[in-house]
Amino acid sequence: MALSLYYDTFPANHNPESAVDLVLLHGWGMSSLVWDEIMPELLEHFRVTVIDLPGFGRSPIPGGDYDLDYLSKHVLNVAPKQAVWMGWSLGGMVAMSIAGSHPERVKGLISVTGTPSFITRDGWPYGMPAEEMEGFSTLVKEDSDGSLIRFLALQAKGSEKQREDIRKLKEMVYFHGIPAPQALRGGMDILCTADIRAMLPDIRCSCLFIYGENDQIVAANTAEGVRALMPGATISTMKGLSHIPFITDPDAFLKEIQEFLCEYRPRSE
């Protein structure tokens, strides 16, 4: 099962009954700690549930095939009945999948450097080369610790604060200890194989897709492919940032999502 933590600390002048739930999903190799720097601002307006994917952070890893359906199932088991969902990278793919398959659970969707396919395919030139991702997958099976550190470095590559970002990511990883090997392998298999492009046109909630101009994992031009699949979605590319914009520049990231989230804030605001 996935482990969720629920936060309800917004200002006392707000009516709790009018507050909207916000679910946050992290990416491969990490945990819900990645959201810490933007949490105070989010808690000014929302009830926030952060979820550690199975085998990551504080979550145990139950039996079953570790695939996208597995992640969606265990996340839905601990998520509010209806919420705005924000997912980063692999977490963005999980959130997209849930928005497509369980629309009644998703009021709005923010995908942060996420993609419906992490690798290039016929008709999808926006991903990483399949052989490069497969190389990471092989490394995960041979050396999970080493592969995780290499992937952290790739996430920060292209950032103007690359060294600082890598340091922060390492601290977050080691805070809870290295994720379960099965979760690392299964999560990497999802990155290498999952393709949910067909689901995107059927997503009916309001959607915001955010990309980093210098992202080395999910290239900024992924926005073109998403725009073709979802003409009604709002798409933004943040200049000078990489795969982790909310860590590199949390203030700029909060400004980027502010207009979208205003729609879901309590009416008293």
- Taking the alpha carbons of the first and last residues, their distance comes to 36 Å
As for the CATH topology, it is Rossmann fold
User: What is the SS-derived class?
Assistant: alpha/beta
- Unreliable runs: none
Q: Average pLDDT value? A: 91
State the CATH class.
Answer: Alpha Beta
Strand content: 15-25%
Provide the number of structural domains.
Answer: 1
Strand count: 7
Order of helices and strands: EEHEHEHEHHHHEHEHH
Name the CATH superfamily assignment. Alpha/Beta hydrolase fold, catalytic domain
User: How large, in whole angstroms, is the Cα Rg?
Assistant: 17 Å
Largest sheet: 7 strands, mixed
Biggest sheet, strands in spatial order?
1-3-2-4-5-6-7
Name the helicity range. Answer: 25-40%
